[in-house]
Amino acid sequence: MMKKPCIRTFTAYLMSSILFVLPVSQLQAKTTESDDKNIDVTPQQGGITDEELAAIYVLSELCTDYGFKKDPDYRSGYAELVKENMSGIQNPINALQLRAKQKDFKPFLEQARQDANKAGEAENKEICKEISSLAKSP
After folding, report:
1. Backbone phi, then psi, for 126, in 5-degree steps?
2. Quick one: which of 14, 28, 67, 99 has the most CB atoms within 10 Å?
């Protein structure tokens, strides 16, 4: 699903705060060889979780604040990230924006924002750069 190490790290960081509520039998954890901080946590039932959607949405807020919104590679990469994680939805960016406004989604956004603050500006900016690299080459 998420192919870039920084995005995987950020998602893992966000997911670590909620792991205690998920049954261990439903999770599959794998540590990459290059860095034991990169943990790929994927629910076995498939699909994207609300926590992951919230993390992606919060990244859009952070990257915009850091000035990446003007970067065409970032915009394209972000669109690709959302499309990849919300496959089957006709306009995934708008769908995610609408989801972010729903009351039952607010706790996931709050947690994702707290986790992003804990990760720090340098790591968040690196993830924004990784999103820019997701842009498809012509």
Report:
1. -65, -40
2. 14
Give the residue ranges of DSSP H helices in 1-105: 5-16, 50-65, 72-85, 92-100
Alpha carbon 121 to its chain's center: 15
pLDDT of residue 34: 39
Q: Which two tokens stand for residue 28?
A: 């599959």
Distance (Å, whole) CA 76 – CA 134: 8
Residue 57 has which token pair?
């949405």
pLDDT tens track for 89-103:
999 999 999 999 999
Verdict on whether the full-model pTM lies above 0.90: no
Range 86-107 burial, b when 16+ CB lie within 10 A, else e: beeeeebbeebeebbeeeebee
- Residue reference for tokens 């603050």: 117
At 16 the three-state DSSP class reads helix
Distances in whole angstroms, Cα of residue 63 to Cα of each of 44, 103, 107, 114, 135: 30, 24, 21, 16, 15
Domain ranges in the chain?
5-132
136's tokens: 């498809």
